């Protein structure tokens, strides 16, 4: 049996007009309804595992604030999270999925310098914004088409900060224990130069690999020469093992370490105990002054004022500035909104730290500059941050105490 439906000429005309209208209107309607996807490529596992959850929590906090403020271009943000496993191969595979399958407008949160260097060529080819936490100097080398922005200090600045911290503490001799990664290695030569230029003497340097069953040989060689201080350029797991070994062996040279290793929201102290951690120094680019953005970040994740969560703060800034740049450019095309990123922090205008207030000012056409959560930074033309302040911390009775600022 065949069922035939007859339409009057008037009905057919009405249907045709309605169809034409529906075909003409979907792009605008759909664009308003569909979310803008933002990728987070985080080290949820691997050597960077202790920091991956912090990054994801920060990214979700920033997305929530932006969405609660009306979203971007009338659309909500949707966070797509991928694990790079702190490995370049896994990072590349995850980045390709974020770009080709999930269709993200940007990729944030890349913690490992090795992963950032592996992913960067792909994002440049695809025209996708890449915001990173990796510190290796090479990340911002070359023509990055305004698509690569670093939200962490580079290795040179961090190495120099350690030298300045030691100089303030009256350190005359130092030795170096360095993990073999692009970032950690990038801090060593700048530290050496700055330290020796200030009159200090480097006694020895030893490189080591992650995951060694023991660090006794390295510790005995470096600490056995009794330097005033040892610069341990490593992440939390290696630092924990080295600090325990030095303590067991009775060495009393002061240890200076990265804030993301010795600070780590108290994880280092939990790993080694308050007695072993006592007297360990660490430096970190942090909002040591009052920061509206950092306060808003901590409030959103339910942490008390004074909590140090540097990587999270950096990712928070990455998501906020990505949203502001999209709103300013009126586009989700990375090439078009990437160029807007530096002006949002470099402008000679009143500072705003609250993301919702920044969005409000942007929509109203009022001049402003975003004052970051991680630091009240500016951008250099190559994508590096400038005007950074480092906090110099000392672990006492199980807590990290701010003892000074380094610029």
TrEMBL record:
Signal peptide positions on this chain: 1-20
Keywords: Amino-acid transport, Receptor, Signal, Transport
Cross-referenced Pfam families: Peripla_BP_6
Gene3D superfamilies assigned to the protein according to its UniProt record, in alphabetical order: 3.40.50.2300
GO biological process: amino acid transport
Family: Belongs to the leucine-binding protein family.
Matching InterPro entries: BCAA_transport, Leu-bd, Leu_Ile_Val-bd, Peripla_BP_I, TAT_signal
Protein name: Ligand-binding receptor
Domain Leucine-binding protein: start-end pairs: 35-337
Transmembrane segments: none
